[in-house]
Amino acid sequence: MILYLVRHAEAVELGTPGAASDFDRFLTPNGNAQTLAMAQAFARLKLPVDAVVSSPFVRAYQTATGLLSVWQPDVRPITHDTLAPEKLKPNKLSEFLGEVPGEFVVAVGHMPDLGTYAEWLLGTSAGAVPFAKAAVACIEFRADPAKASGRLRWFVSPEWVM
Q1: Residue ranges of domains in the chain, CATH in brackets
Q2: Helix, strand, or coil (residue 62)
Q3: Between vectors from CA 73 to CA 54 and to CA 136, what angle results, nearest 5°?
Q4: What confidence tens digit (pLDDT) does each residue in 79-112 have?
Q5: Quick one: three-class SS letters along 92-120?
Q6: pTM for the predicted model, two decimal places
Q7: What are phi and psi of 46, to 5 degrees?
Q8: Which helix (H) or strand (E) holds 156?
Q9: Are 27 and 64 in contact (CB under 8 A)?
Q10: Which residues form a coiled coil (predicted)?
């Protein structure tokens, strides 16, 4: 399995009109541009994607749908609560991702949980995987994702694709 861990793109600040709660924070114009650049880079490099799983929070879901608008326009992301802020349960998330159809899965989430999950998968120390907004880590597994079973293939920040 190949797992692409994606931190959501740039979002508006809490309290911006229309974003009264953290759940409702939506992408900025720059966040939409980051998402499009990432999707186009995947397409240009012919990186396969079978499924996209997202946090249910608006900014992550918008990032996921923006990616899919380029890759698979008629497909919607799957949402999963363990990708939401402060909901990470690594074993539960890995079990779920292992059941998602396909070998190439994108998971869109939030910091610090996304970094913590990547560190758990790679068996590395805390703080070793600092995701910027719209950054992507590609982690390879011989089977389903599990603790310390992944190998980091590559990690890019949004500056690499914009």
Answers
A1: 2-160 (3.40.50.1240)
A2: helix
A3: 40
A4: 999 999 999 999 999 999 999 999 999 999 999 9
A5: HHHHHHHHCCCCEEEEEECCCHHHHHHHH
A6: 0.97
A7: 55, 40
A8: strand 151-156
A9: no
A10: none
